[in-house]
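Task: sequence in, structure out. Protein: 2-oxoglutarate reductase.
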Amino acid sequence: MSCLHRTVRRHPSLLSKTHVAFFSSYLDRPTSFPLKKVKVVLLENIHPRAIEIFENEGYTIETYKGALSGQELIDVAGDANILGIRSKTQLDRSFFESIGWHNHRLWAVGCFCIGTNQVDLAGAAKYGVPVFNAPFSNTRSVAEKTLCEIIALQRKLFERSTDLHTGLWKKSATGAHEVRGTTLGIIGYGRIGSQVSVLAELLGMKVVFYDPLKCLPLGNATQLDSLQELLQVADGVTLHVPATSDTKNMINADTIQLMKPGSFVINNARGTVVDLHALADALKSGHLSGVRFLNEGTSTTATNIPEVDLGVPVSGNIRILHMHHNVPGVLSKIHAVLSDYGINVSAQFLQSNSQHSYIILEVEPFHAKLITRELKKIKETIFLRALL
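Result:
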């Protein structure tokens, strides 16, 4: 039986040592802590199976569908013994400091995902809170998703699907290619990267990879000595690296220029590993594949910006592409500018992620230079273009 739910009898001379070894000084009862009093707080709609496991242990469970932050997070998790999160809840040093050294009861943080960059690991360690993750939780899922995206990009599946939904039947295979015989470059050969390697090779792709550590290649994959060498030989690149100071903006203007014209980048790692502005420039110039993004603003299959598809532009209208920081009020500012000039919006599509929002607006003809100049004045603007 665990000492957490069983009253332990000890000789008086051993009691203080037992207390120090098994119990923290801030617990109410020195020799007993009923499991029903163990409070587990699970945020971000964690899978019911986890709830079932904790309930079977006799713990008290509180669940929340979304992520929490600030004082709300402290109010909910301040008296928790176990805190379960996914990737959106940020546990920074101020969180661990705010719950206090002597008052808090937090025993562990469980990240129900692969990454732990949303947690200040040093701050947690300072207060004696171990942080656990689930390194194999979605390894295969991400690997399969990556292969799907590679095939979709190479065979132009999204373009053909959109055409069909708009009533267009195009039998042309222009720009669509088999993946067999192409070279896939994998950056990061860990659990996910190595799985992608195996699956890609089964499809007939030649696999090369770069990892700062010496890795055992699976199948016929080849480890290259440098990132630069990989970018020069690959027909497409997929990233599977953690968010660190070394990987921040590793795909940037300089590294993109090393890539083959018309190649693709898939970022199924962290958003910080790709320089968004450099990627946008490469798409505009045509150096990287992105014809539909250039002609229609469609960002479907993009892996580091929100996916938006407004369909085929209506003849005679003008399409505005506006990417901005995801903060409240920006959409109102955009509409205010258009309203001031009497411009009617016939269609729009907005999608957001944790950092960015991307909106496509289809509007009646107007003086493009004048309106885009006004929209650029919105301080949250990252990228703006008008398709005439």
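Confidence is low (pLDDT under 50) at residues 1-32.
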